[in-house]
């Protein structure tokens, strides 16, 4: 009879645990995130079908699917301050390359952005892949075929389904085509110039080594001159009044109690070396 209560509690514990686990197993609600609308298509009369950041810039590229027009916009902090700048597309659906403002796309589904800021368009209804660069719009794949298919090979003769998306893969310098309609992932190797960053940021970094080199040279020069004049300066300082103030202002605490010229010159050299 003593076993009955413990069995009861065991079953109760089992039921409680299973109830607890059934709640826990479904969802794990991680707190700490916030949702904010930053682009409101109602205000701007667009439907932002796809959006991506441009590399090394604070700009976004936004696609309005219905008109096939691409816009750029500074990364918005609130939906009130969005200003769309037309990037490419004349607003009519079609298949036309050339100048950014007069190019036409036909139901562009999504796009990818390379390191240079070129935009590759999955131009769904044209079964083609288009490229928007600063010099205009071109067709890089599916240009000849313009029909549905799954043919690989030279890109202009290749065919795609009417449902595919693009992803840029920097490590491979390639586009991947998630070709839903064909149940395939396909790869288009890009030109190496499309995968080199030609951004103001990298130019800034490129300039930095010269600046650092200049600083390093001035440090080395300072130390070299200091050592070179040391033998000539020290005897004079010794023979002169030892209470003379050092010629150069020292910011180090140790320099404040320097009473002799020898120590101040040495600490000057130390200071010069440390600041290098
Ligand atoms: C690609 O298509 C063009 C135009 O139809 C054709 O002239 C060319 O021979 C094709 N090339 C290949 C490799 O199929």
Largest sheet: 4 strands, antiparallel
- Please report which band the strand proportion falls in: under 5%, 5-15%, 15-25%, 25-35%, 35-45% or over 45%: 15-25%
State the shape. Answer: extended
CATH architecture descriptor text of the largest domain: 6 Propeller
CATH superfamily of the largest domain: TolB, C-terminal domain
Helix content: 25-40%
For the secondary structure, the number of strands is 11
Protein name: NHL repeat-containing protein
Keywords: Membrane, Signal, Transmembrane, Transmembrane helix
In short:
InterPro entries: 6-blade_b-propeller_TolB-like. The protein is of the alpha+beta class and 276 residues long. It is built from five helices and eleven strands.
List keywords for this structure.
6-blade_b-propeller_TolB-like; 276 residues; alpha+beta; single chain; Neuraminidase; binds 2-acetamido-2-deoxy-beta-D-glucopyranose; 4-stranded antiparallel beta sheet
Explain what this protein looks like in three dimensions.
- The chain is an alpha+beta fold and 276 residues long.
- The chain is built from 5 helices and 11 strands, in the order ααβββββββββββααα.
- The strands form 3 sheets. It has a 4-stranded antiparallel β-sheet with strand order 1-2-3-4, with no helix packed on it. Strands 5-6-7-8 form a 4-stranded antiparallel β-sheet, with no helix packed on it. A 3-stranded antiparallel β-sheet has the order 9-10-11, with no helix packed on it.
- Strand 5 (108-113) and strand 6 (119-123) form a beta hairpin.
- Helix 3 runs antiparallel to helix 5 (261-274).
- The radius of gyration is 34 Å and the shape is extended.
- Residues 144, 154, 157 line the site of 2-acetamido-2-deoxy-beta-D-glucopyranose (NAG).
- 2-acetamido-2-deoxy-beta-D-glucopyranose binds at residues 144, 154, 157.
